[in-house]
Amino acid sequence: MSQSETWKTVGILGGMGAEAGVELARRLIYLSGARTDSEQIPCLLYTNPCVPDRTENLLHGGPSPLDELVRSLQVLVDAGAELVCIPCNTAHAWHEELSRRIDVPVVHMIRAMARSHDRLLGDRVGVLCTTGLTRVGLYQSCCAEEHLEAIMPTEEELEGLVMRAIYGDLDRGLVGLKGSNKDQTIVRLMWEAGQRLIDRGASALWLACTEISLIKEELIDLSPVPVVDAMDVLGEELVRLARRDAGD
Length: 248
Description:
Layout (H helix, E strand, L loop, with lengths): L9 E5 L5 H12 L11 E5 L6 H7 L5 H13 L4 E3 L9 H7 L7 H7 L8 E5 L2 H6 L1 H8 L3 E3 L3 H13 E2 L4 E2 L8 H16 L4 E4 L8 H7 L4 E3 H13 L6
Parallel strand pairs: 1-2, 1-3, 4-5, 4-8, 8-9
Antiparallel strand pairs: 6-7
Helix pairs in contact: 1-11, 5-7, 5-11, 8-9
């Protein structure tokens, strides 16, 4: 494939959830600062809904997503991607192994989130993410490396609010963000979880699941503290790394 003189080709592995990859590709268009078609970042999107559920593996020993993640990233590399990313926070539990098995850079959105945090927003951040990622402790450790304190939801808040908003409660007829439901019921569930983190001292609210990114504007409208979206941070990191003069 032809290569841009300005940009490396970015590969996005989507499908976790269904809208995440498409949404990231859309945001890249605006974050690039391009004025014409030819100035845009070349982007390959592979939407793979067949990657085993990451939280199910981490919490209950379900099928590992690792081999399918590797295969899917390799599809992007074989198609010409010069750096790749996964707009799924929980998938970063496998980042170290993925980086060993893929021959191009695999961008780490969680480290980018912690490194880019604006200290004017304070150093106690409320993190809305899945139960699996909370248990693994990846946000907590990345925050600690940058001398930030990650305030996490409790188990009760995770299951009753965050995960219910993300996955829904299908037995009771509630479709969640994974089913592209962004109605007020879902927003209220996620906002209650966010409000509790703010009540415990969070000076900024981090949207650390790409499903939650889909209701970013609604949460911004409700929140008395700044809201930072990991999807936006990943997009900004991709713009930085994709410039051919950025180095490796």
